[in-house]
């Protein structure tokens, strides 16, 4: 049985043209920023792309699988702590620490998802929130690794004795490559038979069971995949900030990721990237005006939800005549 995907028919052009344009524009950021003597823009764009990876991973389960996780930031934090703790023990090789970060986040997602996915609706939301807070308080209790104060990394990861992450521009393109790779991987997952089953479970769970699929197993695998992608984002975030903090795992961070997905458009993948760009750019601009920037951002988000049905991703699709 072929289940519908979250994107409307006729959106093939948008699915590929918008991400391509986004990636090309992002690729040009360092050159433009250096020419304008605005190096901070490169740093901001790096942070945006890292959170875009986390948002894409969340969209994979939220937009396509209707799994509203309020503990997704825990996977980001676990990935970050894997790199941070490794650096504290003088292990800097990204070929070791990054796989460890991805596997650790995926293992936590698999274990917690095995329990969480036995519930649905608000119960699923609450149990993912509980697991996320459990990870947060566990990180806060790690006194050997900074506890509440966080853990400072005295440098960035190496790669087989070289230091490609130390140069901000080189690191920027590493993050861009990871974002492109994660997007293409997520797109392949969504377009596969596996992805169609996940979308089918979202539409009608009982019907998918009736034709022989086990929704629990498919959702658990998708949940673990999303956790692994978020772990990669965490490993990159630790290197970008050269600092790891329990705040990476706070439920507020999970809420911000959900906002990014909703703002960009659930079930579009490129919308998750747009949402991360819009959210973090607005945060940067508005926070320079007032510390109460969320009071301004809240109504803007409501307007997007009310008048740009489907988020920024679908708004661009409609304006382009697709879907």
TrEMBL record:
Coiled coil: none annotated. Its main location: membrane. CDD domains: TM_PBP1_LivM_like (cd06581). GO terms for molecular function: branched-chain amino acid transmembrane transporter activity. InterPro entries: ABC_transp_permease, LivM-like. The keyword Transmembrane helix applies. It is a multi-pass membrane protein. The keyword Nucleotide-binding does not apply. Pfam families: BPD_transp_2. The chain crosses the membrane at residues 69-88, 94-115, 122-139, 170-195, 216-237, 257-280, 292-310. Keywords: Cell membrane, Membrane, Transmembrane, Transmembrane helix. It is found in: Cell membrane. One of its GO terms (cellular component) is plasma membrane. PANTHER family: ABC TRANSPORTER ATP-BINDING PROTEIN (PTHR30482:SF17), HIGH-AFFINITY BRANCHED-CHAIN AMINO ACID TRANSPORT SYSTEM PERMEASE (PTHR30482). This is Branched-chain amino acid ABC transporter permease. It comes from Thalassobaculum fulvum.
């Amino acid at each position: 049985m072929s289940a519908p995907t979250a994107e409307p028919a006729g959106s093939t052009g948008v699915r590929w043209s918008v991400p391509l344009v986004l990636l090309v524009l992002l690729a040009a950021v360092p050159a433009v920023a250096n020419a304008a003597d605005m190096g901070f823009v490169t740093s901001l764009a790096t942070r945006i792309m890292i959170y875009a990876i986390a948002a894409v991973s969340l969209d994979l389960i939220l937009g396509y699988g209707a799994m509203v996780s309020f503990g997704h930031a825990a996977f980001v934090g676990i990935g970050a702590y894997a790199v941070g703790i490794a650096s504290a023990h003088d292990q800097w090789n990204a070929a070791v620490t990054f796989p460890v970060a991805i596997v650790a986040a995926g293992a936590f997602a698999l274990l917690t998802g095995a329990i969480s996915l036995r519930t649905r609706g608000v119960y699923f939301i609450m149990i993912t929130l509980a697991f996320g807070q459990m990870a947060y308080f566990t990180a806060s209790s790690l006194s050997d690794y900074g506890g509440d104060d966080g853990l400072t990394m005295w440098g960035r990861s190496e790669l087989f004795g070289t230091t490609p992450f130390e140069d901000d521009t080189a690191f920027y393109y590493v993050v861009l490559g990871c974002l492109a790779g994660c997007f293409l991987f997520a797109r392949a997952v969504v377009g596969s038979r596996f992805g169609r089953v996940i979308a089918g479970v979202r539409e009608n769970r009982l019907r998918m069971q009736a034709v022989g699929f086990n929704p629990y197993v498919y959702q658990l695998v998708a949940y673990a995949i999303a956790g692994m992608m978020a772990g990669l984002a965490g490993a990159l975030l630790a290197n970008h900030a050269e600092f790891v903090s329990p705040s990476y795992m706070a439920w507020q961070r999970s809420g911000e990721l959900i906002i990014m997905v909703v703002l960009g458009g659930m079930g579009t993948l490129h919308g998750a990237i747009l949402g991360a760009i819009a959210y973090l750019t607005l945060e940067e601009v508005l926070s320079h005006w007032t510390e109460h920037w969320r009071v301004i951002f809240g109504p803007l988000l409501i307007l997007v939800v009310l008048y740009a049905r489907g988020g920024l991703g679908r708004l661009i699709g409609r304006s382009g005549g697709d879907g």
